[in-house]
Fold:
Amino acid sequence: MLWLQNVGFLTFKEIWSFLSDRLLLGFLLLSFTFLIYNDATGVDTEVTNADVAVVDSDDSALSRRYRDALLPPFFKPAVLISRSQIDAVMDAGSFAFVIDIPADFEADILRGRTPALQLNIDATAMSQAGVGGAYIEQILLAETRTYLQPNRPQDSLPLLIVDRALFNPNLDSLRFQAIEALIEQITLFALLLVGAAVIREREQGTIEHLLVMPLRASEIAASKVLANGLIVLCAVLVGLALTVRLVLQVSIEGSVPLFVLATALYIFSVTSLGIMLSTIASTMPQFGMLIMPVFLFLRMLSGSTSPLSSMPNTLSTLLQASPTVHFVNLAQAVLFRDAGLMTVWPEIAKITGLGAVFLLIALSRFRAMLARQR
Structure:
């Protein structure tokens, strides 16, 4: 009971200290509202309103079908230009795609020939070049097939392939980007707040006040994990309810309480890692330089943008020691596929186990750090 009382008093002190820091509080609220919205909507990997120009030297019914088939929201209405303008508009970046249709194109197709149609792509627009080129190719092939076989527009194969997207019928990446941005903010602040709390105690000299009290290292470390974990969890609830669901209108398929429970365990795991890192750095600049590569490692190799199966086997095996990998799998399964506890309990167990390991290492180093302060 005395241990719990001491942890409770220290937790209250930590929360009050954080709330007194208006700059840090404002940064936290900004990150879980505006920054999540900006990350989800500011970067679009899909083709949206791409600029297309057409050099129509044929001016036939088929070439006009091509021009009319390039429709919003993927493409802006096609702009007619001359062949002599191609290099100039591509160099200026005025158009991402330029379709060059030669003369007698339709006539050659009707005669059974295979005329060439040129598609010029501005490859510096990396997010649109590959996907947009594939879109245009599919559109042109579909229009050609429909024009030549108006009564059989679906190929001559004795089957019809129909794609159905169950959980994201519009194939909108906003849903995934919003949750990915939320996970990034959770990871960053779980590392930052708890580590900054330890470093701040050392730089301001208040750690000596704690050392003269009848407190154990486990009580001090547990209070910092609990206090900063509660702060981040409250910010997650605000970000999920206000930014993700209300502003971005992202529908949640699964259980929010299950996700919150898993988030609490993930925060425990990452804050334990943050305590461990804070015992390595002695100043705030050192701590900042230390957590940046750790955060980038956890973020870029989490499996959210590139699946682990596409990585080298050795790396994917080592990444099993990252709690972010398991939390990303869990979050996607719960929020997008309505997975239940019986499905995601292995990920929850891994996150909790990794957190316990990090906390044991952090306590060992924290005790050694406090002993050097005496």
Q: What stands out?
A: The chain has two domains: 2-43+173-373, 52-148.
